[in-house]
Design a protein that fits this description.
The protein has 805 residues and is of the alpha+beta class. The protein contains 30 helices and 17 strands.
Length: 805
């Protein structure tokens, strides 16, 4: 019925009504029934023969009976056979093949093909006369057709259908919109890109243009005259009762921009943006509505893809942020012991110091040093030494309070910061720690430690001096026999401390910093440098570690702190170098090298302006000074060069020679040692060179190197965070810059798939690609970065769990 015209559907409906009337008339007897008439004739014939048989039965004249029956069969061709059966069920007379065809028995009622009539002699039942007739109708469907009312209905249906169809086409031409609407108007509507439907006040379709046919795959002939309720539209808003054309027809209101879905003939779904307006005649009476349908399937699919991409991006962003926080936690921990590392300790120390000064609360520091640790390494090996460090660290973390801050300061030294704790309470806590360490048994080894305590109440002006005082107490404890706790306020006045280094030099005298250097400011500067060039920032961190290790026994804690900051910030001037030079993959020209050399002067000025620390400025300013007094360079030479500057020069040169760089060929460690010794006495302090080489060799044997992969993972994760923020704001210019930076970071970190995806993302942004394409690529990039972070985090977590077991 879907493709039958309105005229034909109406003709079929009228014909069906007429046939229904005929059939009802036949049921109530309004139509002559030949079958009933024939049955009455057969009944009368059978009864007449039976009456004649009554006379013959009284005389028992079978011969006459036979003749009579034979004459009846001959005169009535519809009779197939006749039989006379006596009361005892014996077949007395048979005309035709009656015995085999007769099926009724006893008192069974007669049918249209078989009848039996009783024959009486006087008052008794003599027998029965049995008649078998031919069927009045054919069996099955043909039997129905034989019925007069059915034959009449078929004849009337065929005739009326033809008559109605042509009559309606001529008389009811208004039901065919293709005839009602002039061709020029219909052609104009067919040129519209949007689908159009016109419905009457009963919401029946009276017009559908070509665009609607093409979009839905439904020809207009299948739509005209149908109710809109039978067109399977679905509201995307979920309310199928408040449809736009319903509002227009019933309420007379204009509805716009409603999203409607419709299934095509091939099973696919299309989405329309539908608007409907009421059609009102000159008298203001609503006559129907006109509805427009704009195919927004692709737009909605893109919108859904965009929504899915944003949802995926948000989920990935949250996971990346979580991973970054976990990586940041791992980055604050010492890989061997699981305690805070030194730089994280400095940052926490600054916060606690400021809080104590602001609120005038007590603050104490404890320095812990394992007794005879060098002999443990020498006699039992570095593996045993590492186990001792792990066990002692575990005791420190278990014994310290939750508010205490435990850090590995360097080598076998640990620092414990005790907020809201005065000297007496700190002594009690330190004593608990000393006893717990002395109870340790590692194989056959017994371990003890010496502890020094200092408090802010002793008139100390900066955090590093507090550590210096605690370290002085530590030295006194060792000098007085080890395995004891010493407080700074209990050291006799005038006590001096001189410790011999491996080079035979005495340590520099302990003095307070002229101006404290806040470590948060240092962290901010090194983070800014890492944002510009991650490789340079990583180099600075390695140099700082080398400086701190080399200065042990040569400088006080506060002086080593300044030296470590100098190592972290010695290349800070590169912030002012253009990216075209700083990130250049190939060799630099002479002019570009000139720009790179000037960054040293820029760095000195940044340090001088940022911190106002003469000690720090002097170390960075004189790090390139030559040790040889006969060198042509101006400035201090020999021992006039600050010791920190001499250590920094060697550490910087060694790490530069052993690190991969596009500007120079990477050396092996042995080659770098050879080059340092070659320049000893001219460029470098020869005693510091030998000390440095010994320190590096010991570090290689005993101290796990900081995982560069962990640092790389965190760097990539933070850059991804910035990228996602720019993506959510749709700040394409920032996204392009961040993608470029991420590509360079991944390239230097030997992560080709991350670098390639970042490069593709940048290309999409620069080519004004579709936002969905950008989001999909960004999600791929996040997936690769998270995968990289996962592998790094597994390594870092495994290391930390190993130290905590």
């Amino acid at each position: 019925m879907r493709h039958i015209s309105s005229t034909m559907r109406i003709a079929l409906s009228l014909t069906s009504l007429a046939i229904t009337v005929i059939l009802v008339a036949g049921m109530i007897g309004g139509v002559s029934d030949p079958w009933k008439r024939d049955m009455e004739h057969r009944t009368r014939l059978a009864e007449t023969v039976a009456i004649n048989f009554s006379t013959l039965a009284s005389r028992a004249d079978t011969s006459e009976m036979q003749k009579l029956l034979q004459a009846v069969v001959t005169r009535n061709p519809e009779i197939e056979s006749v039989g006379v059966r006596k009361a005892d069920n014996t077949l007395l007379i048979e005309v035709g093949d009656h015995k085999s065809q007769w099926t009724l028995a006893g008192e069974d009622a007669s049918t249209e093909t078989q009848m039996h009539v009783p024959v009486r002699s006087a008052t008794e039942l003599w027998g029965t006369v049995e008649f078998r007739f031919s069927p009045l109708s054919h069996p099955g469907v043909m039997g129905l057709v034989d019925r007069p009312e059915i034959r009449l209905s078929l004849y009337v249906a065929a005739g009326l259908l033809v008559v109605y169809y042509f009559y309606l086409r001529k008389v009811l031409v208004q039901l065919n919109p293709s005839k009602v609407v002039p061709n020029r108007v219909r052609d104009a509507l067919d040129t519209l890109a949007e689908g159009l439907l016109i419905v009457d006040q009963n919401q029946r379709i009276v017009l559908a243009n070509r665009a609607f046919e093409d979009a839905t795959g439904r020809p207009a002939t299948s739509l005209l005259g149908r109710s809109m309720k039978h067109v399977p539209f679905e509201s995307r808003g979920g309310n199928n009762n408040n449809l736009p054309w319903n509002e227009a027809v019933v309420d007379g209101r204009r509805a716009t921009g409603r999203l409607m879905a419709l299934s095509r003939e091939d099973g696919t779904k299309i989405t329309f943006s539908c608007s409907a307006s009421p059609i009102v005649d000159e008298a203001g009476v609503k006559r129907g509505a006109i509805a427009s349908f704009e195919d927004v399937t692709i737009l909605e699919e893109q919108k859904q893809r965009l929504s899915n991409a944003y949802a995926e991006l948000h989920t990935a962003s949250e996971k990346t942020k979580k991973q970054n926080r976990e990586l940041e936690f791992l980055a604050t921990r010492d890989a061997l012991t699981g305690c805070l590392n030194r730089r994280s300790f400095f940052s926490r120390f600054d916060d606690e110091w400021k809080s104590a000064i602001r609120h005038k609360t007590p603050l104490s520091a404890v320095m812990v040093d394992i007794d005879h640790f060098k002999s443990v390494n020498d006699n039992h090996g570095h593996a045993t030494g590492d186990e001792v460090l792990r066990k002692v660290a575990a005791v420190l973390q278990e014994t310290a309070r939750e508010t205490d801050i435990v850090a590995r300061y360097g080598g076998e030294e640990f620092s414990i910061l005790m907020p809201h704790t005065d000297t007496a309470a700190a002594q009690q806590g330190a004593e608990r720690i000393r006893v717990a360490i002395s109870e340790l048994k590692i194989g056959t080894l017994s371990v003890t430690a010496s502890l020094g305590i200092a408090s802010i109440s002793e008139g100390i002006s900066d955090p590093q001096t507090l550590l210096d005082h605690a370290d002085k107490c530590l030295y006194v404890a060792k000098r007085n026999g080890r395995n004891q706790v010493v407080r700074y306020d209990q050291i006799p006045k005038g006590t001096t401390i001189e410790a011999k280094s491996s080079t035979g030099r005495t340590t520099q005298p302990v003095k307070e910093l002229v101006k404290p250097i806040p470590f948060q400011a240092v962290t901010a500067l090194i983070s800014a440098l890492a944002y510009r060039d991650r490789a340079t920032a990583a180099h600075c961190r390695r140099v700082a570690d080398l400086c701190f290790a080399t200065a042990e026994g040569l400088l006080s804690h506060s002086q080593r702190y300044v030296l470590e900051i100098a190592g972290l910030l010695h290349d800070i001037g590169k912030i002012g170098v253009p990216d075209s030079i700083l990130l250049k993959p190939g060799k630099l020209s002479d002019e570009e090298w000139g720009v790179m050399r000037r960054q040293g002067h820029i760095g000195v000025e940044i340090i001088r302006a940022s911190f106002g620390s003469p000690e720090l400025t002097a170390i960075i300013e004189h790090r390139h000074a030559h040790f040889d007094p006969l060198s042509p360079t101006s400035g201090p030479t020999g021992n006039q060069i600050p010791l920190g500057a001499r250590i920094l020069a060697i550490s910087d040169a060694f790490d530069s020679m052993t690190s991969h760089s596009p500007h120079r060929q990477c050396m092996t460690q042995a080659e770098a040692f050879q080059e340092l010794r070659r320049c000893a006495g001219t460029q470098f302090d020869p005693e510091i060179v030998e000390r440095f080489i010994n320190i590096v060799r010991m570090r290689e044997e005993s101290v796990p190197r900081v995982s560069a992969s962990k640092e790389l993972a965190l760097s990539i994760g933070l850059e991804i965070e910035h990228l996602v923020e720019s993506l959510e704001k749709q700040d394409l210019s920032s996204m392009s810059a961040l993608a470029s930076r991420l590509e360079k970071t991944a390239t230097k970190g030997n992560l080709p798939i991350v670098a390639e995806t970042a490069r593709v993302l940048e290309a999409h942004i620069l080519s004004d690609a579709d936002l969905i394409e950008i989001l999909v690529t960004a999600n791929e990039l996040l997936a690769f970065c998270r995968s990289t972070q996962d592998s790094f985090m597994e390594d870092g977590t495994r290391e930390l769990e190993t130290t905590q077991r």
